[in-house]
## 1
Amino acid sequence: MQPVLTLLIRTLPLALATLPLSTVALSNNMVIDSHLHVWASNQEASTFPYAEGQDPPESLKDAASTSRLLEMMQENGVVGALIVQPINHKFDHSYVISAMKEHPDRFKGMLLHDPSLSAEQAVSTLEDLALKGFVGVRFNPYLWPKEGEKKWKSMSSSGEGGLAVYKRCGELRMPVGVMCFQGLQLHFDDIVALLKSSPDTTLILDHFGFTSFTPDGDKAFQQLLELSAYPQVAVKISALFRLNDDAPYLRVKKDRFDPLLKAFGPDRLMFGTDFPFVLEQNPSYGGTKDLVRSWVEDEGVKEKIMGGTASRYFG
């Protein structure tokens, strides 16, 4: 084994685990936002340009800068956040890197995997970005080549970058988050294949696994509950507004959150807002945090969902 790779294996998980965010969050019993995005404002975009064709929505273009996020967190008692690399900057991670560098006690990052890379290139990119502060990887299955109507090349394809990165993440203790934007049912078999390929890799499903209140979404939710049998699977209690329910999200609480809590337990559920998109919803950032907190009476369970679980997975 090459010396540099050996050093990464030995030291990188320790380095990721010793950053101070978790200590701050747990000692103050405050909130960690496990899912949000930042992107350059109009003014910052000259230094941190958007990817071609990926300008943010005009209504949110200046709402998702690092400084705006910090203001929102400060106002609402959120002590730390996991920044998920936005599609607006695609595979250029420099804006998120700058946010983490300027505020290492507040932010950690989840990088966006590039399926066009070879296995060797993908793992090398992963290791490089891990050393720059990223503690997880996002798989967006819609970035893989499309192979038919609502069908994409498998994330678990043998010999390719996705599978190589997924397995390497298990060695580095870096969770992989999967965004099933068009529905968990489209990717269930692929996800199971990933889970079986590397039981040591934590797999986190965004936004209740995108199990909306539709006939397909209800079936997908049963699949999500089945995934609780895999101890390495966790779920983000995030983006309540994406489930086809209206505030105050009584159905989300009764028919999604409560069954997930029973099946997965609080050690595998984590709160997130999906900032800045939550800013256009009612309740907005702080209201969403307060609403999810109100769903749990037990203080120990509440502490895990609102920050402890994210701290344990991301450091």
## 2
Amino acid sequence: GIDTRLIMVERAGTRGKADKVLRNLPPGDVTTKDRYMKLSKVDWTRIKCDLAHVSLPVVLEKEMEGASVVVIAKHLCGAGMDLALKSLETIKARVDACLLATCCHGICEWKEYVGRDFLVTEMETDSFKFGVAEFDLMRKWCAGTVSCQKTKDSMPEQDGPDGDGMAQVIKKSESKSEDEQAEHSTEALDTENDVSLQRVNVRAVVKSLQLKCGIEGLGRACQRLIDYGRLNYIQTVVYNPSQFRSEIVHYITPEVSPQNACISGKRYSQRKEDHP
């Protein structure tokens, strides 16, 4: 029988790598080792739709009642992550764990962002108000990490101590597929050619404030602030922290990818309503 049901929700087109594996699966189990999922026992469905228009309670139909639900988001860009967290709230009683890799903070939207209360509380003072304009600058400054990575990627290859070259450590941006480059493009965040924004672009801010962390450090700080707002949403709105442990973890080094953080969560006990 079927042991696992895989439901994939995607807004845009897909390369179909997972689909190809599942469709071309020969009869019988090809993944026989215990540590691998047996693909022949996976029932899979792909939903091509904006997550904002998907009702997860309907998707998780009644015959799946009692099943353990794990939510995974792979590099869910910008406001898509916030829509995912809002969707998570609608099925929170059924979710046992989540792993959400954030990405493309520069295209986040204030109206969709779930951590607004957190940022306002943490950032505002008697003389400083935090709102959509300030958030707009923060999300643009996130591009500092990606900008630094692109600079590293465009460096000429140099032989290391073993003569292997740096290409084995840092992949050049030219090697990325066109789809990947378009998906993670930061061209829309470039403020250096806009005269009205030149004083507040990430390089100008770092220079004027003489920040020792540089543009990469400022960009990373802005990324984490946005992600901590999302984590706070999980801990205060979606779940009770005493029943669901959640945290931000870095799953790979920033040299491999500057988008290297994810929000992980796991239920402490058996499923039940976390909030009245």
## 3
Amino acid sequence: AEPAPKPAPKTLPELQAQAAGARLADHELECWAATLLELHREQFMKEAVAYISRHDRGWADGSLALLMHAAAKAGLPDTVVALSDAVRESLGWGAEGRFLEQCLIGAHAAAGNGAEVDARMKGFAAAGEVSMKTYSMIVRGCFSSGHVSQAMRYLSLMHEAGHEVPPPALTELVSRSRRQFGSLREVTTWLGGEFFIPLPPEVIVHLVDQCFELPTVEEQVESALLTEQLAKAQDVALPAVAYGKWLRLYCRTNNSHGIECLRRMVKEGHRPCERLCSNVMSRCAESQNVVLAEALAMCLRANSEMTLVSYKTLMKVYAYAGMY
């Protein structure tokens, strides 16, 4: 058996020992800094400067940038400035001005200082084009501070400025919006209205995934319909997996949504596999959705994939519906 992985350093001596050895990989340094800021914040400045003095000869080596990023993510603008000043005083070099300003605006966003972010953004705009990196840091900061509506606003501004909005930013927005508002209506309406740009298929699929996280079947189905309407309005070419997820949601109620989704799936050239058909048919029993179960059985027969298990599943649907 493989040995169990060592637990991540947590105590101050453990963190000091980790940083005292060879130069840490970027992701290790980020984790080290995040842990230090969370558990031993009063020691962060001293340990960070000590690490940089051991491993870096100048700004280009990158450790100061990573550690300032960590302080920004933690919502600590004063620490961002203090770290740059401390390195400059100790080693004779510090952060470049533009980078420092970007870190500060991200730190204020993470701290929930919306007015300060807006004021600094005006300064950036007056000096010229606001970079993609600046917008990204603000959006990450808004996510960290739980200000989803602010994140939506800055993603809109990012798009209006001509920058491509990264799909991971949109998928994270969907997840955070669902957790904050308890629904997907807000983010779906925004994606299809104010922020109407062609969405990558993975964003639509993630929206459907989030429907399963809602507390009631009614809310799940309502949100699934909204996501499907958004996909149709955007004319997004979706993979078969998206239709499969919609079918798993729609089969939970006895209405026409499931059969309509199945027709669109077939029309788009996707063949529902035996595993999907059997799974959805089984769920149709509880909702007594006989029409959808029979349509799925027809798909299986057309593809010569109807098995004994599939027949038994269809009989179960009939039995639950009282059709003996």
